[in-house]
Amino acid sequence: MRLELRAKSFGNQPVLGPLTLSVARGQRVALLGPSGIGKSTLLRILAGLDRSFDGRLTAPERLALVFQEPTLLPWRQAEANITLTTGATPARARALMAEVGLAGHEAKFPRQLSLGQQRRLSLARAFATDPGILLMDEPFASLDADTGARMLDLTEALLTRSGAGLVLVTHDPAEAARLGATALRLAGSPAVLG
Amino acid sequence: MSDRPLFLRRSPGLIPGLLSVLALLALWAVAAELAENARRMPSPLAVALRVQALAVSGELWFHAGMTLSRVAAAFGIAMVLGGVLGLWMGRSRAADHWLNPGLVILLNIPALVVIVLCYIWIGLNETAAILAVALNKIPLVTVMLREGARALRPDLDEMARAFRMSPLARLRHVILPQLAPHLAAAARAGISLIWKIVLVVEFLGRSNGVGFKIHLLFSSFDVAGVLAWALAFVAVMLAIDLSILRPWEAGANRWRHDEA
């Protein structure tokens, strides 16, 4: 995956300046910086969700995104949330659910799961696409210390096993270090990679 | 609670509902008694006997069937076209700006005008009848579905795009479940409106159906006959509401409840 960004602005307000970012399979990168600097905007550009920017993006076939919130379909059961969204087989969905500690919860609706469980389901869903690169937007924010640490361990294990690359948006350098990700800092206005 | 029979626990409104219907019947019986004119104000029993006679002769089933098929056709057309238009107008601001004036105009044209114009322009035939009914209903479905489409969750939309869900899968698993309450409301409001308009259409220009029969009975001032046809058809529409629309609505809302 490679992004050559010349500029990104919202209306007349420039947000991101010229920057180049490339991530290969197996490579891990963390985007750090204070709130509002444009980290999430950059991630949305990488995910192909925001196409109104000046620059060029080459993205791999299979990308997966883990959002700040679990973003599950509340009207579909846990297993269907993986299969319907990603096209994974039910067997693969169940195996991934077992891997994130959700065995036995396949038939539950999201609201019957705790927030920690919902986030693990969202992680399992991301890996069900067998992504070349995994994009994560502050996935450990607003979790209590134990749950956050457990999510970090799970993410690390799944990344290592699948060999997927990672772009992690976070404000916490410790998360980047835990996942062995190269820390890149966004700074300035419009923000560039320092 | 637990010693009450199952059907009472499932539908707690059953007893009050039945009692209120009985009270209405009693009120009607008293009114018929006071009116002292069985022709202008027949008793509930007289009307019930007429319904029975119509059912036995088979006339009820034929004409109610004709009316019901028109209701079904107009309902289907209105739900699909109104749904598509509403979804489009709710999702695209440009579509909303262009189509909204036409929608407001259609909403305010009296049903009777649409019916008369359809009969004049298309002819006294089935196409004109069904189109006239559907045209009366489409704007209402559109407005209700537009509200639903405006309230669609943007985060789920982005999730579906990020995971590259196919348009069909997005419609079925992301969009329609969010629209289900609006669809159900539009369907239930729609079906009662549609059958009333179908009767007018039949009254004015068809040679079968409940509306046609009421036209004949109107010319002979046969109130018992008018009531018999109307009540028999109300019963049919209630049965459809209870047996099809409500169970479907309950199924579509199952995920909202905690028990698995």
TrEMBL record, chain A:
The keyword ATP-binding applies. This is NitT/TauT family transport system ATP-binding protein. The keyword Transport applies. Keywords: ATP-binding, Nucleotide-binding, Transport. Belongs to the ABC transporter superfamily. Residues 1-194 form the ABC transporter domain. GO terms for molecular function: ATP binding; ATP hydrolysis activity.
From TrEMBL, chain B:
GO terms for cellular component: plasma membrane. It is found in: Cell membrane. Keywords: Cell membrane, Membrane, Transmembrane, Transmembrane helix, Transport. GO terms for biological process: transmembrane transport. SUPFAM superfamilies: MetI-like. It is a multi-pass membrane protein. The keyword Transmembrane helix applies. PROSITE patterns: ABC_TM1 (PS50928). InterPro entries: MetI-like, MetI-like_sf. Residues 64-246 form the ABC transmembrane type-1 domain. It holds the Pfam family BPD_transp_1. It comes from the Bacteria. The keyword Nucleus does not apply. The chain crosses the membrane at residues 71-90, 102-122, 215-240. CDD domains: TM_PBP2. Belongs to the binding-protein-dependent transport system permease family. PANTHER family: ALIPHATIC SULFONATES TRANSPORT PERMEASE PROTEIN SSUC-RELATED (PTHR30151:SF38), ALKANE SULFONATE ABC TRANSPORTER-RELATED, MEMBRANE SUBUNIT (PTHR30151). This is NitT/TauT family transport system permease protein. The lineage of its organism: Bacteria, Pseudomonadati, Pseudomonadota, Alphaproteobacteria, Rhodobacterales.
